[in-house]
Amino acid sequence: MKKVLPLFMAGAILAGCTTTNPYTGEQQTSKLVWGTAIGTAAGAATGAIVSKDKGKGALIGAAAGAALGGGVGYYMDTQEAELRKELESTGVRVARDGDNIRLIMPGNITFQTDSADINSGFYATLNSVAKVFKKYSDTTVMVLGYTDSTGSVEYNQTLSQKRAQSVASYLIGQGVKSSRFEVMGMGISNPIASNSTAAGRQQNRRVEIKIIPNK
Fold first, then answer.
1. Residue 176 dihedral angles phi and psi, to the nearest 5°
2. Collapsing DSSP states into helix, strand and coil, what is residue 103?
3. How far apart are CA 67 and CA 150, in angstroms?
């Protein structure tokens, strides 16, 4: 019975804890709930191992693990919600990958063709991003630039790097700490659509910001 205690605790937390995503209408389990459940199971298992009283140790470990796991999930949940609110109707897509958040910024609203100069009309959007980043400072911010396959590999690599750096530099200029940033030009790699059509190439020209919690 003691061996299944961590799984029972995690299952109890997850049961009945689904919510409706206000943006997609889909049923999902909150990242806070997932984090708490995972933390509970891990903490309970560890507590049971290190404690002479296995049952008591599991309960103590579960409490500590739940606090840690739930903390990361809740931190990213609330940050995601604020980003979605700030970026609604801007053309920037917010996506969630586990504990990480991705901001996908289409090139047609961010830059002029073949330029790394940010469109002045996009400043307000980046200001909103910077505001949230300053509020939720316990994250690493990866800025990744991408292009389509038109032109040479070398040219696209350089352009993607310059575009990523332009976005990072603007956010730093708005008060986000430079030490949080990792900036990379990805060139033609990782297309999200076919480069054989104009519509696909437009999707591939983008800057993505990946927000990673500092655990």
1. -80, 130
2. strand
3. 49
- State whether 120 and 51 are in the same domain: no
SS3 content of the chain, % helix, strand, coil (to 5): 55, 20, 25
Question: 62 lies in which domain range?
Answer: 2-83
Rounded Cα gap, residues 8 and 13, in angstroms: 9
* Number of helical (H) and strand (E) elements in the chain, helices listed first: 7, 7
* List of residues 6+ apart from 67 with CB closer than 8 A: 39
Provide φ and ψ at 160, rounded to 5°: -65, -35
Domain containing residue 133: CATH number: 3.30.1330.60
Alpha-carbon separation of residue 79 from 48, 89, 100, 209 (angstroms): 34, 18, 10, 14
Sign of CA dihedral 179, 136, 97, 34: positive
Predicted local distance difference test score (pLDDT) of residue 90: 97
> Residue ranges of the chain with pLDDT lower than 50?
3-5, 7-9, 12-17, 19-25, 46-48, 50-51, 66-67
Point out which residues pair with 105 in neighbouring strands: 207
Residue 112's pLDDT is 87
H-type alpha helices, 88-152? 107-110, 123-135
| CA–CA dist 200, 159 (Å, integer) | 18
Helix ranges restricted to H, 25-152 = 31-50, 54-87, 107-110, 123-135
Q: Angle at the Cα of 187 (from 162 to 76), degrees rounded to 5?
A: 80
Question: Positive or negative CA dihedral for 81, 87, 88, 91?
Answer: negative
pLDDT at 71: 83
